[in-house]
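User: Show me an example of a complex going from sequences to structure tokens.

Assistant: Sure. Here are the input components:
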Amino acid sequence: MQTLTIYNSLTTQKEKFKPLKDGYVGMYVCGPTVYSNVHLGNVRTFMSFDMIYRYFLHLGYKVRYVRNITDAGHLTDDASEDKISTKARLEQLEPMEIVQKYTVDFHQILEKFNFLPPSIEPTATGHILEQIKAIQTIIANGLAYEVNGSVYFDVLKYNETENYGVLSKRNIEDAIENTRVLDGQSDKKNPQDFALWKKAEPEHIQRWESPWGVGFPGWHLECTVMSTKYLGEEFDIHGGGMDLKFPHHECEIAQAQACNHVSPVRYWMHGNMLTLNGKKMAKSTGNNILPGEIFTGNNKNLSKSFSASVVRFFMMQAHYRSVLDFSNDAILAAEKGFQRLMDAIKLLDNLSPSNNSTVAIEKWKDRCYEAMNDDFNTPILIAHLFEGVKWINLIHSQKETISKEDLELLKSTINAFVFDVLGLEKESAAGNNSDKLDGVVELLISLRNQARENKDWALSDKIRDELLALGIQLKDGKEGTKYSIN
RNA sequence: GGCGUCAUGGCCGAGUGGCUAGGCAGUGGUCUGCAACACCAUCUACAGCGGUUCGAAUCCGCUUGACGCCUCCA
């Protein structure tokens, strides 16, 4: 098995990956809060971990990949603004109807982007009992207290023996000085304390019975409970967006320590933000693009529509830990590059092997793995893949040669990385009537070729130009005329 | 205000103490009836100022700028 190196946010350095159990990987990724449509920024994080999941599978690991759906806790704001319940009441919907609506949307979008489904996709509302139990444990361990029907985690007390701030590199003393005074938090001993259980006000729709009265679970608890339940008290990888590092992931560590007396995660991984116009995409600010808008091109930032694979390729061209800025120019360039890659892959099946190779496929393959083994460096991998593209083209035009064995290796390697690991998809040229369309275009091509033989340039150009106007581009080559639909 | 990350050629975006990232665009060529497409080749770099070093875009310091977190956020 390959030796992987992973950047661990907890230690802030790259470390050799050693799973708790040889050959097995336990991975937890914080999923979406399903109160509105996923935007492209959300998709990037999940896509990074989809790629990571795919690479582990490719390497032969057995992976249990848990990605939750947050359908409680986050939905409700403890201040006066409660979007979900307001919305639910306005539209006379149950909260779970909203949850269902956006969960379905989430799944549909991910499917379009060719995501592999996780092994388990648990929900917060499905684990209320476990969360209550965890709170009881934390109280019993003296690290939480009940006030007025709510339960809070005692951060200062926890910090006496543990380090609240290990992950986010925050100093709690500084935090105390700098915390703003917020209304409605008077129940807390300290502003740093966070809610494990919140008392439900009468108008609050999502509510469950608990030893502390009717209420709902706090923001951070679900991930601790569900990761522990499905992956154990200690597991290999925990992922999520950079913006979840604090407080969310910091709180998860504290909760897990308070429950199980062990640091839960071996490797913390954080994906970086996707920006739009240089600013973070966020639902709250309106600075975002919805995936659906990309597919239709219906967004003021876009000059045309783009396919899911192009978007995926665009994102894979950047490292998951780097900020990536989305723009029309950038996605346009990615589309061309993606097309070049796909065109070369189409040529692969037509290549004829020679007795020997003038290209070093085996070494090239090793470099591809090296790139991925170095903290999932997909941009480098893609650079290597383009070296493969160049070779394919040169072999095709008989300027280089390749042996039968090397050709098989080239094919299997390209296919593995492009389709299995990066998760890209070949694009279907046309819709349902592709057979008929194909026949029509072929007919026009043969008519045009007749005209060309007769040197009737007026007619041949008319056919070519008018097809182009319809988005059908004819491509004259040595082996005749082909076409593509844009 | 506190903590942190980053500044790479026209654009996007990797990486590294000395040796070509890659893609897009541009330029030159091949192909073509002319084109387009495609293919081949190729030019533009490492924010600024100091320092360490035989050598730094890469390490250190400062300056400037951008972004992220500190409040729900992938």
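The lines above are the inputs; the final block is the predicted structure for all two components together. The first helix of chain A runs from residue 40 to 58.
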